[in-house]
Amino acid sequence: MSLRPNKSGKISKSIIFSLVFLVLGYILAYSYNLSKSQSELESFTGSTLFEEEERLRQELIEQQERNKSLREELMEKQASVQQFEQSFSEGENHSAELAEKTEALRRYLGAVPVEGEGLEVTLRDGEYKPDSENPNDYIVHESHVFQVINELYISGAQAISINGQRIHKNSHIVCTGPVITVDGVQYSAPFIIVAIGRPDVLKSSMELTGGVLDQLVNDNIIVTMNEEQAVSMPALLSES
């Protein structure tokens, strides 16, 4: 019995090998695609995380800049408030100072009554000597009165009167022989000048070496000074 090649067997083997290679090729291709997909996924995921991290970092920087700007604005506002408080405080002090100066000016103008301690300065004519060439050298003139008044004001007098008549910045004092006229009213010696203020200061100012008192004495004027504890002067427009 002779053996002959079976053609159908060869065909079967070819088909089987073909199927095996086909399946193997599919498996290899699938594995390659799967590996590539995982690599792309990992690459995409890493890129996304980097972008997100960069975005958050940028937002943080912007927020820090915003906070810095807000802090600077807050400091400016605080400085403005502090400056306003300081100017308000200075304004209060300035207002108080203005009120004090206004009150002093009103007293000086005679617009308000004044009370307090003070100094009384009396000016009398000197003793006339018959052998003197000029009798006017022994009487009180308006210049002597003005010397006393100016010195008292400089020393801080708040108000001044002559023989009970209160004077003001526009008072007119004129000497006519042995009398003086104060705002149209005549007075004869002695002339009593009263000033409201600190008696010790007013008197010390009058007694300065080479000052008003020495000049009056050199002009043969008799001067007496008395410190007063209670002096009252009405306002110029007062009826009392």
Automatic annotation (TrEMBL):
The keyword Coiled coil applies. Residues 53-87 form a coiled coil. The keyword GTP-binding does not apply. Pfam families: DUF881. Keywords: Coiled coil. Belongs to the UPF0749 family. This is DUF881 domain-containing protein. It comes from Planococcus salinus.
